[in-house]
């Protein structure tokens, strides 16, 4: 593969090897020393470390212990006077996945910045992690902000917040108005974090009037939901979602049925629903595997709720939320999203006779699978059943939602810059764009590897995010002219090597699935 690069600013590639080697070390491994940086915040001073020319503050508290007010909105912490250590990541929300440390006391964020209170007015890039609203944290090595800071002279922030039942268990109809906001507590945590950013950005060398939120998978869904949440208005000025969409939120009736199913697993009913607030956190985690009572697959879904209190409308139904139409937005997906999570023996050596039955539960829309197979074989006669399986399941699921979001913004005349990540082996799966976005291809967990082409691809995406944060326009010298999406042309940046612009890529697939209603997971 070629290593030649399109013309770009030289600063992009200076010090690549040395900086990469330093950036892949776990941030928490660097301990505070005398003379390390101290920054004041609205809650109290924090002491971080300086390494590789970047100030790192890990585990900054932005909210009080949520275990003291479970299922209720977050509150600011009690202020402190002495500099709090900010050299290690804070706990993640309780969850079923493997995290080094979890606790209900999880409202912590992490900051990487080149300078402190130096008048730099740098763009601030706030990342919301994925994990389908149920798992994950802002502490993964792939999210280390060092290289983004070095590349773009920006401030990078990652956030922990409440997940799954702790952040999205809707109890309003079962336990009363004391829990009116319970279905969106995880979103309210993010809003509190963004308020912290607004109040403290300048102390960390950032510009509170140039805050970009970006996120992958569930993180993108969190962003789309915030774009329809009045309390979030004005807290961010650009947005980028990667393989994460939220066309509709969970409705209050479905959210209540999910709450009932979850409570039943805890041995509680409608009359004792409030008792969930007093159970041990581990007991709640054990019940997260309860089957979803609404959807015919998977464990009980937790996500934002259209509760007419915190969230009065759906994010992209029937239109894009008006409050955020002025915000420039990147909407991206990978070519073969479902290769990341539809894995196992049943998906290997697929035959033509097996394909329809495999498609039915995995497309997540109600369409005759034989029709889908016939159309794909007509469009792509050279493809194998396995290739068609991943193409069709991707097109019917998350990519479909991305198209809907882009269409609604185009109809409203709102800027949406759409990309499709094609580069990968054989095609890019879900999560493939994370190391590219953070320029962290050298991190051991990176699916991309650290070849020259991988680093080139990281340049394309990370520079686009930096440009969006800085100017509201993702264009930069290494890209073809990236035009916003319109209904007439459906302009899409295909991130491959080399990158190219296409009008309506996979348009025939889009038209096929547009013939049936889209079902948002969780709705």
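Q: What amino acid sequence fits the structure above?
A:
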């Amino acid at each position: 593969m070629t290593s030649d690069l399109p013309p770009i600013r030289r600063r992009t590639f200076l010090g690549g090897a040395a900086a990469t080697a330093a950036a892949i070390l776990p941030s928490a491994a660097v301990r505070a020393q005398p003379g390390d940086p101290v920054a004041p915040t609205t809650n109290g001073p924090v002491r971080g470390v300086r390494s590789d020319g970047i100030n790192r503050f890990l585990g900054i508290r932005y909210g009080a212990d949520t275990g003291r007010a479970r299922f209720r909105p977050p509150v600011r912490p009690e202020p402190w006077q002495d500099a709090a250590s900010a050299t290690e990541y804070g706990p993640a929300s309780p969850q079923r996945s493997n995290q080094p440390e979890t606790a209900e006391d999880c409202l912590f964020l992490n900051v990487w910045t080149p300078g402190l209170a130096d008048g730099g007015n740098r763009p601030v890039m706030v990342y919301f992690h994925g994990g389908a609203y149920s798992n994950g944290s802002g502490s993964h090595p792939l999210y280390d902000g060092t290289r983004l800071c070095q590349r773009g002279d920006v401030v990078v922030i990652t956030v922990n917040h409440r997940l799954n039942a702790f952040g999205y268990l809707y109890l309003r109809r079962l336990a009363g108005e004391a829990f009116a906001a319970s279905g969106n507590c995880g979103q309210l945590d993010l809003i509190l974090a963004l308020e912290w950013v607004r109040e403290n950005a300048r102390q960390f060398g950032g510009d509170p009037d140039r805050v970009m939120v970006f996120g992958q998978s569930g993180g993108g869904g969190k962003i789309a939901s915030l774009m329809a949440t009045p309390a979030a208005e004005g807290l961010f000025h650009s947005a980028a979602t990667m393989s994460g969409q939220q066309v509709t939120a969970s409705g209050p009736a479905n959210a209540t049925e999910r709450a009932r199913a979850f409570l039943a697993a805890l041995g509680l009913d409608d009359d004792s629903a409030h008792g969930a607030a007093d159970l041990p956190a581990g007991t709640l985690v054990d019940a997260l595997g309860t089957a979803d009572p609404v959807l015919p697959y998977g464990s009980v879904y937790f996500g934002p709720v259209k509760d007419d209190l915190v969230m009065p409308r759906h994010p992209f139904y029937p239109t894009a939320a008006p409050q955020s139409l002025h915000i420039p937005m990147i909407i991206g997906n990978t070519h073969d999203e479902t290769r990341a999570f539809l894995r196992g023996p049943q998906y290997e050596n697929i035959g033509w006779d097996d394909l329809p039955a495999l498609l039915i539960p995995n497309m997540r829309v109600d369409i005759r699978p034989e029709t889908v197979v016939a159309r794909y074989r007509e469009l792509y006669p050279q493809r194998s059943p396995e290739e068609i399986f991943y193409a069709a399941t991707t097109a019917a699921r998350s990519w479909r939602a991305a198209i809907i979001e882009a269409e609604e913004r185009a109809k409203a005349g709102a800027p949406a810059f759409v990309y499709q990540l094609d580069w990968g082996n054989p095609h890019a799966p879900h999560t493939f764009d994370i190391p590219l976005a953070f320029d962290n291809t050298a991190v051991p967990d990176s699916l991309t590897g650290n070849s020259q082409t991988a680093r080139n691809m990281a340049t394309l995406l990370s520079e686009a995010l930096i440009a969006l944060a800085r100017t509201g326009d993702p264009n930069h010298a290494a890209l073809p002219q990236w035009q916003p999406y319109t209904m007439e042309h459906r302009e899409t940046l295909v991130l491959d090597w080399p990158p190219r612009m296409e009008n309506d890529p996979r348009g025939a697939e889009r038209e096929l699935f547009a013939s049936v209603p889209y079902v948002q997971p969780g709705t």
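Q: And what stands out in the fold?
A: Residues 1-30 have pLDDT under 50 and may be disordered.
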